[in-house]
């Protein structure tokens, strides 16, 4: 009977340790991913903004020397991230590929114009920013028209502001939930040993002496859970970098390492603090209240 009871206690203890490690792992894994999203959110939003293009159409009278001068002007400008020249012939080919019909067969001529697709830097991707650039470019007498999506620019900026606000709110809520979940798992683990704690106290052991092995054990469990979370996060980063290289998720490597170190420190700190107060509660509890 004693052997069966010992085995039962051992299984329950292992199950308790496993639940603590699993809780720490899952919570810190999600918290780490959220941290990586926050540090990369500005760069990702900037990349999204910089995909919005301004198309500048030139008159048919424009010559190669005018195009060369315009390109030199754009290269020297602070607002331009990149630009691409699209000839009227290339535009006609693109139209045919998209719509599946060749309008030149029944028109006989190409009515399209030579143009430049200009991608602005993120700081200029606002309606006032685009307007200033448009005003500057229109000073060129060979520019026929300038086209860009004003509604899309407004929509992108408004949504980015909303997403940023909600990410910060969710991060705060999730941080609180993370602490509560890990704290709850550790308290349950300590609760299973409440009689051992009180027995040690009754035979004269000091609070610090009783608390020490529990704190050491919880820090070890927190360390294991943190390391597993870090390995899982690294796996996600490698997957994203391999399959979505355009995101350049590892560009800010210093901040990424800082987040991983933060996951490790948080895992150790939360388990240490939670165990300290959980053992303190049972140390201060009267024997009659243990039941």
Give the gist of this structure.
It is built from nine helices and four strands, in the order H-E-H-E-H-H-E-H-E-H-H-H-H. With 291 residues, the protein is α+β, with helices and mostly antiparallel strands.
Number of domains: 2
Structural class: alpha+beta
The count of β-strands is 4
Helix content: over 70%
Largest sheet: 4 strands, antiparallel
Tell me the overall shape. Answer: rod-shaped
What order do the SSEs take from the amino end to the carboxyl end, as H and E? Answer: HEHEHHEHEHHHH
Summed up, the helix count is 9
Neighbour order of strands in the largest sheet: 2-3-1-4
User: Mean pLDDT across all residues, rounded?
Assistant: 80
What does this structure look like?
The chain has 291 residues and is of the alpha+beta class. The protein folds into two domains: 10-47 and 161-290, no CATH class; 53-148, Alpha-Beta Plaits (2-Layer Sandwich), CATH 3.30.70.3040. It is 71% helix and 8% strand. The protein has nine helices and four strands. It has helices spanning 2-49, 64-76, 88-99, 104-107, 127-137, 150-191, 194-202, 207-243, 253-283; strands at residues 53-58, 80-86, 115-120, 143-147. The chain has a four-stranded antiparallel β-sheet. Helix 1 (2-49) packs antiparallel against helix 6, helix 1 (2-49) packs antiparallel against helix 9 and helix 8 packs antiparallel against helix 9 (253-283). The mean pLDDT is 80.
């Amino acid at each position: 009977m004693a052997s069966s009871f010992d085995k039962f206690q051992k299984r329950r203890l292992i199950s308790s340790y496993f639940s603590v490690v699993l809780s720490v792992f899952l919570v810190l894994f999600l918290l780490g991913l959220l941290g990586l999203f926050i540090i990369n959110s500005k760069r990702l939003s900037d990349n999204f903004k910089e995909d919005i293009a301004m198309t500048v159409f030139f008159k048919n009278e424009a010559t190669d020397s005018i195009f060369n001068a315009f390109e030199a002007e754009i290269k020297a400008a602070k607002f331009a991230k990149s630009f691409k020249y699209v000839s009227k012939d290339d535009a006609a080919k693109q139209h045919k590929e998209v719509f599946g019909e060749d309008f030149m067969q029944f028109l006989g001529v190409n009515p399209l114009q030579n143009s430049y697709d200009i991608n602005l830097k993120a700081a200029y991707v606002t309606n006032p920013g685009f307007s200033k650039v448009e005003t500057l470019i229109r000073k060129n007498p060979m520019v026929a028209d300038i086209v860009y999506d004003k509604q899309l620019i407004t929509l992108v900026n408004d949504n980015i502001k909303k997403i940023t606000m909600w990410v910060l709110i969710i991060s705060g809520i999730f941080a609180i939930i993370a602490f509560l979940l890990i704290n709850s798992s550790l308290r349950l683990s300590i609760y299973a040993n409440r009689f051992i704690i009180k027995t040690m106290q009754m035979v004269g052991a000091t609070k610090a002496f009783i608390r020490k092995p529990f704190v050491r054990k919880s820090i070890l469990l927190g360390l294991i859970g943190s390391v597993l979370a870090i390995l899982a996060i690294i796996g996600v980063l490698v997957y994203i970098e391999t399959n979505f290289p355009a995101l350049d998720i590892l560009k800010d490597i210093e901040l990424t390492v800082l987040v991983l170190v933060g996951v490790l420190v948080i895992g150790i700190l939360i388990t240490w603090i939670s165990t300290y107060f959980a053992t303190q509660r049972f140390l201060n509890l009267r024997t009659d209240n243990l039941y």
